[in-house]
Amino acid sequence: MKTTNLDNIYGTPGLDWASVEDRLGAGLTQAPEAGGPNRHTCWLATVNTDGSPHVTGVGALWVDGAFWFETGEGTRKGRNLARDPRCTLSVATHEFDLIVEGEAEKVTDRPTVAAMAARWAAAGWPTQVDDTGLALTAEYSAPSAGPPPWSVYCLTVRTATAVGTVEPGGATRWRF
């Protein structure tokens, strides 16, 4: 991992990646008024066929050093990722604003899909694995996810940038 302190103006210290990971591991609630600022929406940006960005909110989880999310394969983000897995995901916490860049891979390992379904269910979204064992289903999801089944994706982080939002502030980039 290469760490770069991006603050060459105010002299603030670089942020610590282990602290960022600890905070992400504590969870990112999407319930209104339950996080900061007021909640934690993860924003996923994918690449449209014409090269322009497509940005949408997703319910992502931080597990084992990666962001995990789900979507229907027929959604724009699902089609974009099938064609070009490069994407970014951003989230604001109380302590920092974070942007990660990398590639999202559709998960085709049944035990992993089941483990992620259990994690989302434990976090309050009553999802389960569908009959194929390769996707998720539930009574409801975000309308932007499209109809079930929903494929699980793992975003492997290549680069991350965080801006501290509490004292002492700072801005840091990590390359993995």
Overview of the molecule:
With 176 residues, the chain is an alpha+beta fold. The chain has one domain (2-106, 153-175): Pnp Oxidase, Chain A, CATH 2.30.110. It is built from three helices and eleven strands. The strands form two sheets. Strands 1, 2, 3, 4, 5, 6, 7, 10 and 11 form a nine-stranded antiparallel sheet that branches. It has a two-stranded antiparallel ribbon with strand order 8-9. A hairpin with a 6-residue loop joins strand 10 (151-164) and strand 11. The radius of gyration is 17 Å and the shape is globular.
What's the level 1 CATH class? Answer: Mainly Beta
H and E string: EHEEEEHEEHEEEE
Strand tally is: 11
Percentage of β-strand residues: 35-45%
Count up the helices: 3
Gyration radius, rounded = 17 Å
Report the structural category. alpha+beta
The CATH architecture can be given as Roll
Main sheet properties:
9 strands, antiparallel
Helix content: 10-25%
Spatial shape: globular
Please give the domain count.
1
The end-to-end span amounts to 5 Å
Name of the CATH superfamily: Electron Transport, Fmn-binding Protein, Chain A
CATH topology: Pnp Oxidase, Chain A
Average pLDDT works out at: 92
Unreliable parts: none
Which structural traits does this protein have?
176 residues; alpha+beta; Pnp Oxidase, Chain A; 3 helices; 17% helix; globular
Break the fold down into its secondary structure elements and pairings.
Blueprint lengths: L1 E4 L11 H9 L16 E6 L5 E6 L2 E3 L2 E6 L4 H8 L2 E7 L3 E11 L3 H13 L5 E2 L6 E2 L13 E14 L6 E5 L1
Antiparallel strand pairs: 1-11, 2-3, 2-6, 4-5, 5-10, 6-7, 7-10, 8-9, 10-11
